[in-house]
Input
Amino acid sequence: MSSSSPLSAIAEASAPRLDRWLAEYWPEFSRVRWQRVISAGLIKINGIPARASDAIKVGDRITAVPPPPAEAATTAKPQPIPLAIIYEDDSLLCINKPPGLVVHPAVGHWDGTLVNAILHHCHELSQGAHPLRPGIVHRLDKDTSGCILVAKTAAAHLALARQFSERTARKTYLAIVRGNPRATAGIISGALARHPVHRQRMTVTQREGAREAETSWRLLRSEGRLSLLECRPKTGRTHQIRVHLKHLGHPVAGDRIYGGGANLPRQLLHAWKISVAHPIHGKPLDFEAPVPDDFPETLRPR
Output
């Protein structure tokens, strides 16, 4: 059986937990390895993303992306993938990431990522805190385009990471959203945590463990039932802008997860600008990624 081929089965016996059922039905993969795939949202029961603790009933249809080979979980290999480089020196890169490109290897995407591309482009990269994320200081969602910084050295990685943690790095996004906000600007403050049921989603909540998050926004243009917003996240939580704009009542157009509709190829969110101090000599650096072609001409900043 190929480790990349999708798996599908009909349960012929019940089981108290999905992870146990998977390890028994496909014993070539350990229960721990199956749990990682489940956590990534890549196992479904009757078409619905499942949790490890979900019970299995006779007749349930289980579809799964199998765990990768053991070595894939610890290494990333160079691959000749084109890069749109905005800036490069001996310490860092700024890349205009296209939509559809995953930033680093993970369950379900073990190659063909930005990390594979930059390993091919650079002779050396900062190792960072994880072997599958060399050089990665911050991340963008797969379908979010725009500016992303990559550290080449350990010193650059440390200095850039400190700017992100201390919130001195400034990020500006463009978002095309559903509807027309009544106000022309505002601040969204709402702590974020994993959705209690849909584990691939985040949600605004006040429950214990939620992490504070704040996004300021400004209306740039409206056209029909869509609007262009400029968004500046103060914090950097997973899916922050997407969740906050849904909370505002104006989800990002094309965002299938957060209510933006499925009639567009991707969510129209673009990391437009990023400003940091150079990690070595401290000189201010301001980067800008061109507005992508899939943003309508009538909804572009002037």
The chain has a mean pLDDT of 91. The chain has three domains: 7-67, 70-166, 169-302. Residues 52 and 251 are 30 Å apart (CA to CA).
